[in-house]
Amino acid sequence: MRRSRISDVALLAAALFFTLISIAPLLWMALGAFKTTAEMIAIPPVWVPDFTYWSNFATLFTKYWPNIANSLIVTLGATLLAMILALPAAFALSTMRVRGRNAIADWILSTRMMPPIAAAAPLFILFSAVGLLGSLPAMVLAYAGFNLPFAIWVSMSFFRQVPKELIEAARLEGCSWFQVLTRVAIPLSLSGIATVATFVFIFAWNEFMLALFLSNRGSQTFPVVISSFIGTGRIYWDYIAAATVIQCLPPVLFAVFMQRHIVSGMTMGAVKD
Amino acid sequence: MGAVQLVGINKSFGTAKVIDDVSLDIRDGEFIVFVGPSGCGKSTLLRLISGLEEPTSGRVLIAGQDVTQAAPAERQISMVFQSYALYPHMSVRDNIGFGLRIAGFSREETRTRVDEAARMLELTPLLDRRPRDLSGGQRQRVAIGRAIVRSPQAFLFDEPLSNLDAALRVQMRMEIIGLHQSLGRTMIYVTHDQVEAMTMADRIVVLRSGRVEQFDTPITLYDRPANRFVAGFIGSPRMNFIPVSLSEGELIDAGGGRIRVEGRSPDEMRRATVLGVRPEHLTYGSEGGVWSGRIRVLEQLGSDAFLHVTVDGLEAPLVVRASGERRLREGEVVSLSPRPGTVHLFDQDDHAIGAPDPAFRPSRAA
């Protein structure tokens, strides 16, 4: 008893230590959002900033609000589009007997193996040719496309968990495949869909390289703006810190929001346990 | 109305043939049971009728209409699954009414029909609950409710009771029989439980390796099995099989004993290679029987005792159903004889000899 308590305490201490190491940069960044550049680089360091100093946030929001809005539009648009395309595809690949469906699924996955930046130049030429370069729809399309393989594959694994008999029962009761998807498969896979959507959201929100290539001054997303705080003559550490805090918030809020939809035991009682 | 015909149905999964030229003629309103060992194709056959599987060749007719290419929903059939297949995110009411709503019934009409089905199945107090809040029997009743509310041409049951405990199974069995009597609709029921098959069916289809071994009334299967497989499958404990060594006139030598078998022609007697006798058709005494052996195992059930008797010269022990037996003990020697007129004979191809069976239609045309 005594021995196990000691080992528990040791484990807890080790966990706390490693957690601290992991979150220290984030913590330092969050504290930096309330400092001036001089305070950021002061020696000895300013450990506790003046939390009433909101000037960095105020400047960012007033000056760069259109870019934050761009990020939100692109991210939500890409997440929505990716899910609208991924869910029927994943459902068909996991449920319907399509000839060569494994090959199709593998092919979809293989497109994920290409680094997105490799497609930057082709996409640049393509969007330029169709007159979409520098527009928000172009980025929505690109982000949704890059997230589709992941969204399809993860959704497939969730749809496979829907008992086959439920899908067959719905088919026997007259549901079209679309109705089976919307009235049976999706309601039973909400937790999985929330997870997939969260990941797509985070990817799209944080994406930087493609945004750099495909956007223009009017459609720049917030990560591109953050990178511009590193100038040739000066690095705006105070803005970088505050902008990073702003950048971190939506994915956290989105994840918290989606968490409410992750209802455990949703399929309880569907089939014999 | 709900007659179901299968004409030359074959089904293969890749190179594996699971249904082999099955033809069945199920009359409107009949209660048909598909029975057979695991992997015999009984569930596949049911799924072929439902439209959940497509036959490799052959035709499915429901109410005289060729529905081979029709989608499951177009066949006007309902299916009850072994695992209940209730929608967990819907209430009992929504589960039962789901098919009606999909079919475009109004809310009022759906409500009326659901209420009626719920009353019939005593589900009214449970209508607002979710499936997870119900017991196994209640869930299965909801599944049945979902099936009857659509007034289908035929009901398909895929081992609906195998997830229930023994007592509940008996109760549900009675309820399904009652339902069949009150609805009068065609019901096709898959089970591996021969008690369910014998007690529920108007006619039974015995399947093995995707083929129909025999299709007839329960009592015909019991009294006149078409072959050794059916003879062994129907009846519990299973029929005893004893190799025949010689036949002379009406006398047969089997397992070291000599038996008189009446009603067979000399040619039929000559063809016999195996003799079959059911455990309940063996009489036992202390001496004077055809076979004599020692009781190796005695299974006491109270109403009956099953004696497993080791007889010299026989590989398997002979099993005897001894009604109300209390005196015998393991290790005692008993003498056994078949009751007159209860012996079955089988030829070297395992076909029954001299047990004419007009209703039997083998699945493979000769």
Rg of chain B, rounded, reads 24 Å
Low-confidence stretches of chain A: 263-269
What share of the residues of chain A does DSSP label as strand, in percent? Answer: under 5%
In one word, what is the shape of chain A? globular
Poorly predicted regions of chain B = 356-366
- The CATH topology label of chain A is MetI-like fold
- Identify the CATH homologous superfamily of the largest domain in chain B: P-loop containing nucleotide triphosphate hydrolases
Count of helical stretches of chain A: 12
Instruction: Quickly count the domains of chain A.
Output: 1
Radius of gyration of chain A (Å): 23 Å
Task: State the end-to-end CA separation of chain B.
Answer: 31 Å
Mean pLDDT of chain A: 89
- Say which CATH homologous superfamily of chain A is assigned: MetI-like
Extended strand count of chain B: 21
The main sheet of chain A comes to: none
The domain tally of chain B reads 2
Assign a percent range to the helix content of chain A: over 70%
> Mind telling me the CATH class of chain A?
Mainly Alpha
Describe this structure in words.
The complex is a heterodimer of chains A (273) and B (366). Chain A is an all-alpha fold and 273 residues long. Chain A has 12 helices and no strands. In chain A, α6 (136-159) runs antiparallel to α9 (190-206). The longest helix of chain A is centred in the first third of the chain and has 41 residues, at 55-95. With 366 residues, chain B is α+β, with helices and mostly antiparallel strands. Chain B has 2 domains: 4-228, P-loop containing nucleotide triphosphate hydrolases (Rossmann fold, 3-Layer(aba) Sandwich), CATH 3.40.50; 237-353, Nucleic acid-binding proteins (OB fold (Dihydrolipoamide Acetyltransferase, E2P), Beta Barrel). Helices cover 25% and strands 33% of the residues of chain B. Chain B has 9 helices and 21 strands. Chain B has helices at residues 42-50, 92-102, 107-120, 136-148, 166-183, 194-200, 218-223, 228-233, 266-271; strands at 4-13, 16-26, 31-35, 57-62, 65-66, 77-80, 154-158, 186-191, 203-208, 211-216, 240-248, 251-254, 257-260, 274-277, 282-285, 291-300, 304-311, 318-323, 333-338, 344-346, 352-353. A 6-stranded mixed beta sheet of chain B has the order 6-7-8-3-9-10, with helices on both faces. In chain B, β1 and β2 form a beta hairpin. The model of chain B is unreliable at 356-366 (pLDDT under 50).
